[in-house]
Amino acid sequence: MKNQPSLQIRRGISTATQEHIAVAEIRHLIHQDQAQLILFFCSAAYDLARLAAELRNAFGDTPVIGCTTIGQLGLDGYTSGGISAISLAGDIAAHPFAVDLAAMEGRMSGIADETKRIIGMHPDQRPFGLLLVDGLSLMEEQLASLLYRRMPHLPIVGGSASDNPSLQQTHVYVDGEFRTHTAVFTLFRTRLPFRTIKFAHFVPTDTTLVITRSDQEKRVVYEINGEPAAQVYADLVGVPLEQLGLPTFSVNPLIFEMGGEQYIRAIGGVNPDQSLTLYCTIENGMVLSIGRAVDPVANALAAFDRLREDIGEPALVIGCDCLLRRLEFEGSGLLDAMGDIMKCNQVFGFSTYGEQFDGMHMNQTFTGVAIGTGHALA
């Protein structure tokens, strides 16, 4: 009879602004024997070359992955600045793969073959994938779709790296350095129970629209129902065109439905020609509905209750939470309440520029993977 599987987790946060101090503090907090992976999220305000060197020195041959972010989630709820990290040991293994987004077609073929080989060598373990991707690459849709086509039976969740608003560059850390226009796909395998999770506090209304002219690569919609996109949207939500902005967009996102699932397409802004810039790709002919917000607290509690029905108490939830959700919670005074929910459910994650779930890229959503029946170290 095999031993009961267990998961050893150590968590750490440092708000030090000097790279060597921050990494030293993190290493002290999360070091454990036989760590299988270090996962971290950090402020883009660090000197990333120096931070990379400190990380290499601190963790040696242990695989380390991470990305820049405008904010983190953890046992302190929603935080910002500094660096947060976890180390994982026990009945879990991780295999990171760097993906150059300029050559992802060829690279993904090799990754898929290696992933299938690894899975085949360990039939007693179940696999899942975690994706971290440059959040300003505009390549998330292609990457998520390609991963899903190559490995359709592998559960995959992920998030797009974010940055401090003034820096305009997002980075992924893999193979010992921070990189742009890069993703890291990590294959996990474990005997522990796990479940992927996706939730958003919006429901579709009866107000539908059809995209009639758009630029997929730039994520710009020029026409809806054959008319200027911004004017049509303003008329449908009952707001004057000149008053359109984040407050309206955040509570009236576009929702795409497919296969019984709903995927949010957030609007980023209005352009001078009355086109709309989105945070996800939109295709001509796509039929969408305008979303209506429901209680985000009740929505999150229900999602985690369903999770518990499947795997029991989570030892860890690796979470990818849209930055637009965080901004909404800050504006509505719900950030502490939502942070408490994340704390109670052992979430470790970051504020993203977009989220991935299996073969789809979306916005204003929480995606993640919950691992249960493990033993978490303090």
UniProtKB/TrEMBL annotation:
Record-linked Pfam families: FIST, FIST_C
Residue intervals of the FIST C-domain domain: 229-359
Limits of the FIST domain: 34-228
InterPro entries, per the entry: FIST_C, FIST_domain_N
Stretches that traverse the bilayer: none
Signal peptide stretch: none
Protein name from the UniProt record: FIST domain containing protein
Species of the source: Polaromonas naphthalenivorans (strain CJ2)
Source taxonomy: Bacteria, Pseudomonadati, Pseudomonadota, Betaproteobacteria, Burkholderiales
